[in-house]
Amino acid sequence: MIKRIVYILVIVCCIIVTVGFFRYNPTVTYTEKVPTSAETVIYVNLREIEYNILLSFLKHPLSQFDSKKNSTTKEEEKITLLDQVEVPNSVFFYTNQQEFKDFFISNQIPVKAKFTEALKEEGFTGQKVKNTIVYTKGRVSCVVQNNSLQVLFKKYKKAIVSSELLSALNHDDYFSEEDLIFEQIKNSETSIAINTLQGDFFKLIIDEGVLRIQGELSEENNLFQSFQARSVIGSIVNISGKLNTEILADKLDRSFKEKFRKLTTLSLDSVTNKWNGVIDCNLTSFIEKSDTIVTYEYDDDFNKVEKKEIQKTITPKVTFELQGNDLCDYLKEKEVIKRVENEDLLTLMPLFTTYSFCKGNGLKFTSEKNQKLTKDIEGNNKFYFLFNVANYQEKDRGIYSLKNKYLDKVKTIQLLVTNNNQLEATVELKNTSKNFFLQVLN
């Protein structure tokens, strides 16, 4: 009897995988999808993502479900977005540095008659822009015209859907399937692929509970410059590399620069002009101390009464190094670095004492006066980033605690850029048996 059940399950799995293969690997249509003004194209293979989830379910069927109590009360029926969308095999998103610079725009997606009602059910609010109703929720805006939908995803929270942007959505010229911008995408056979006219290419690979990003950076507009990246064994956070400060300053949003000025009283453009791009940052641990604070109170008879209180403090054990010949003098001139009791201190860090040490070509900040770290050179990498999220969150870090429903699922985040401009990034979740997309969407 048991063998019979096993055989039936095997046959069913084979049928599902076989049917799934033909369903989730259809021919991709490239015509009239991406306008020729686009400079960056993101290809999302929705069928491949579904197929990936299906395979994960077959490997670990029990781990794909969340153990939540079902509500005993029957929910009122409502119109859902998925019911009102003709879900395509794949979707293209595109952007450029001119009319689309603040948005990623999707190609047109067919929708059903009650789609706008479904948007309202999901909390989208409508606003009239140039005789067109734009429905927005958070960073996502939807433009619905002639039974078709275009999704506009904001790169920046305060980006505005203008009448000029809506006019730019009407295209006459599109890339053909033979154009170079699709060449690497067509050969990638992955769930998500990104290509630019400059030659940058990335593909996203899902391995159950792990997301891997692999690709190649073009020489043009490359943010990462030649450097010998260094790492510290056991670091919770590790950043090492050299950035192109001109490109960095150009990519940063104006609102971010204004926030930086309010927080530090410094001009971010002035700082980047003094800084040569080298950064070396390490967070290795947190130091916990308990101090006894003695205060005095008076009772009803005016007798002095001693009162003791235990105060716990948590200080990150961190080093932060920057390079730039005039950077140290500039920060001293702006009184960001001040001399206090024969010590140079960084005044921008009120949470803990931060020591400053000026060197010939830069400066170093540390949370301990004589802090030294043993660093290993990453010989093949010019940029290295590591964030051990699980290690960071395993204890209560007090005011430094990071609580986020997405970060709570992550084990580590890592990014490498090699000397020959190959990029490798990994996001590993704590639960590696459950599909990555399912965990993110929950």
Structure description:
This protein is α+β, with helices and mostly antiparallel strands and 442 residues long. The protein has eleven helices and 23 strands. The strands form three sheets. It has a 19-stranded antiparallel β-sheet that branches. β16 (337-340) and β17 form a beta hairpin. α1 packs antiparallel against α2. The chain is globular and about 80 Å long. The two termini are 37 Å apart. Mean pLDDT is 84; it is low at 1-23 and 69-75.
Number of helices: 11
State the low-pLDDT regions, or none. Answer: 1-23, 69-75
Number of strands: 23
Helical residue percent band = 10-25%
Offer a few descriptive terms.
alpha+beta; two-stranded antiparallel sheet; 23 strands
Structure in a nutshell:
This protein has 442 residues and is of the alpha+beta class.
